[in-house]
Amino acid sequence: MSPLGSKPAPAEGVHLSPGAAVPSATPGAASGPEHVEVPTRYDAVLLSGFGGPEGQDDVIPFLRNVTRGRGIPDERLEEVAHHYRHFDGVSPINGHNRELRSALEHRLAERGLPLPVLWGNRNWKPYLNDAVADAFQRGLTTLIAIPTSAYSSYSSCRQYREDWADALADTGLADRVLIDKVRPFFNHPGFVQPFIEGVTDAVAAAAADGIGADELEVLFCTHSIPTGDAATSGGGGMYPRQHEAVAEYVMATAAPEVAWQLVYQSRSGPPHQPWLEPDVNDAIAALTGRRGVILVPVGFVSDHMEVMWDLDTEAVETATDAGLWVRRTPTPGVHPAFVDALADLVAERIEGRPAAQRAAVSSIGPWFDVCRPGCCANKRLGFRPAIAGLAP
Fold first, then answer.
1. pTM exceeds 0.85
2. Distance CA 257, CA 355 (A)
3. Distance CA 194, CA 61 (A)
4. 320 contacts: CB under 8 Å, gap ≥ 6
């Protein structure tokens, strides 16, 4: 086991119970159905975050965790570190997850599901292996995990599944602690509602400043990923399609008369590797016939560093330099509708709610509970051990 308070090493394998097709899964999920429609008892919820530094001394060690295995020297990491150093080395993500953990635990209790909500991170304290070990010590051996990311892709879904496998292997609990995951919640109405409200309010604010609907452009912003990862996401191109479906629903509900487009941000990786485009700053610079722009962080559940730096700092500066009126709408955070949505995702698994009765908006129905074979593959890294899905 890794020392307390450190990221676990990658797992070398996964535990499969006799007759099971999904590692470390509850009986209802072990055979790999698309949707688990039998009631399942859980002991706790495992809220799973990306993690972030909480002081200047944490920044480089945190970035080493994020880039582990890629051989990136500290000098190059320091080029990214300045985003965090601008905010005194503190990422907002841990504070937001503390708030979300408390709000979710409260909402679950209100709904008659008094489950403890554990919290673990992939890349910084508290780590997932520490959370799993703590759960076992408390007698909490059947967990339903919620990743703090709504969409299907390697980095937003499968990598969480790999990290849960790492945590189970590191603690030696792969045959004693079971972990299922909630479905990707991009189109749960409670996740979408804060974006509807944000666009509605921003359009009204623009109108109050004398900017008409035909003079606005709404940019739905999400994290860019390599095009190769996008091609395998959700079984085939689902990362951009899921975002587009959400954006279409938001605009049809909030502002059908306003133009919009899906844009990307926070690109990293080598220059020769293609990533999803257009970049938000390029999209702003290319606007014609517009007096205002609304930035909607549809790919984020809270104000991550990518929101505070890439949107609030760089994109707002690009828009301002172009002479555009600009607003950035809120992330879901601890909006009551979002917190209730997460509670509902847990409730539907506890109840074994049929897929046809699950809450979902947009042209895409409720996504899978158990990831399908090869879902969200990363062809550069190959298939690493992962749970909550069918192999590979």
1. yes
2. 33
3. 34
4. 326
Question: Number of structural domains, the chain?
Answer: 2
Same domain, 320 and 211: yes
CA distance 291 to 236: 37
CA distances to 6, 187, 317, 350 from 89, in Å: 19, 33, 22, 40
Full residue range of the structural domain in which residue 216 is found: 189-328
Q: Is residue 54 within 8 Å of 95, Cβ to Cβ? A: no
The tens-digit pLDDT sequence of the chain (392 residues) is: 777 789 999 999 999 999 999 999 999 999 999 999 999 999 999 999 999 999 999 999 999 999 998 888 998 899 889 889 999 999 999 999 999 999 999 999 999 999 999 999 999 999 999 999 999 999 999 999 999 999 999 999 999 999 999 999 999 999 999 999 999 999 999 999 999 999 999 999 999 999 999 999 999 999 999 999 999 999 999 999 999 999 999 999 999 999 999 999 999 888 899 999 999 999 999 999 999 999 999 999 999 899 999 999 999 999 999 999 999 999 999 999 999 999 999 999 999 999 999 999 988 999 999 999 999 999 888 899 999 999 99
Q: Are residues 153 and 40 in the same domain?
A: yes
